[in-house]
Structure formats: structure tokens, C-alpha cells
Amino acid sequence: MGKFSEFRLPLKTIPEGVQEFEYHLGKQFFVNMESADIHDADLQVKLTVTHKHDIYDLAFKVTGTVTLICDRCLDDLVQPIEADYEIAVKYGDDYSETDELLIIPESDNWLNVSYMIFDTASLAIPVKHVHPLGKCNRAMSALLRKHRATKIDDEDAELTDQLMDEMDSMDSAPDSPADEPQQTDSRWDALKKLSTDSAED
Fold first, then answer.
1. What beta strand segments (E) does 98-151 contain?
2. pLDDT tens per residue across span 60-110
């Protein structure tokens, strides 16, 4: 049996009306697809086939999670997936495809939908694979920030670093007694000094 034989849809034997098919996608499906980005998966696929006259309307619904590697800290990142895809299929003289219609030769008794499912799931994954701010592996994030080279005008990177530093310090700082003097930000101290100096002038 082939790697994707369970995804062979028996079009010619599907009667007119509505038929439903279900598939489960695990890690092995993406290994077979040679997908380097997806390290694990738990996806449910519901395929509804509406056969009317000589047209088969295929409606895919993919839900579940995939496990990626966070681009920032390199830890596992569980990404929720919810995606839909629809295409019409009909028999014709030769194979041809548009965004909305797939024509397959009359000699094909089966239609393998594995690549349609793979594309639907893959396109639902964001381009950037990163944990929400403050959820990355702290030790790795600190190392990456220390050794990362940024462009001079990269305001987003600077803001991200600043926010992550502040969140890390808020989470790691012990509660200070009320009478203990609070540490202040040296940048604010410098601005206050400038303000005081100008007021004295």
C-alpha cells in the first residue's frame, strides 16, 4: 500500500447526493510529505462531497494543532489550525486545474486528496513561528538577544527586546518591602536630571 492510499477518494462510485469522509493527520503524514516545519500534528479533517450531475463539490475542514519550532527560542510551539478549502471536480478529456475547478481524465477512478489536505493545513500556518510575547524559553531568548545583530532602523526589534526585558524583570523580581527604596530606570533618571537643570536655569 502507498503512503497516501487512505486518501484515495473513489469518485466514480460515489452516488449523487452528499457523502462525508473523515481523516486523521498525525506526525507520520507530515513525515511522508517531507515537511521540515511540522514536527508533530493532531489534525482532524472532514471532507464533504456533494455529487450533483457531473460535478463533485469537495469541501474540506481541517481543525486541530501542529507542533512547530519557535523561531525565537527554538522550543516546541503548538499552533492551533482551523482551515477550509473548497474545489469542484469533474471528469473530462484531460487533466486541467484552476482555482475553483479540477478536471481529471475519465480513466481515473480515484482522486487522491492528500495534497489538497496538506496544502490546506500548511497555508493556515503563520509565516512567523513565535510564541506569544513573554512565553518563550527565557534562557534561550536572553542568549539570542545578546548575540543578535539588528538593523539600526529596526524599531520593531528594539521594542520587542524592551518589552521582553521588562516582562522578564517583572516576573523574576522578588517582592520588595514597602520601606525598601525602589530601583529606578537610569534612562528616566537622566531625563529627570535634564528637566531639573533646565528648571534651575
1. 101-105, 111-112
2. 999 999 999 988 788 899 999 999 999 999 999 889 988 889 999 999 999
Residue listed under C-alpha cell 496544502: 119
Q: Which residues pair with 102 in a beta bridge?
A: 89, 97
pTM of the entire predicted model: 0.69
The CA distance from 4 to 148, in Å, is 42
Cell numbers given for 156 = 520593531
Taking only the tens place, the pLDDT of each residue in 117-136 is 999 999 999 998 888 777 78
**SS3 assignment, position 11:** helix
Chain centroid to Cα 157, Å, comes to 21
Is residue 142 within 8 Å of 167, Cβ to Cβ? Answer: no
User: Could you give the C-alpha distances from 103 to 56, 59, 156, 161, in angstroms and in order?
Assistant: 10, 16, 46, 51
CB count in 10 Å sphere of residue 1: 5
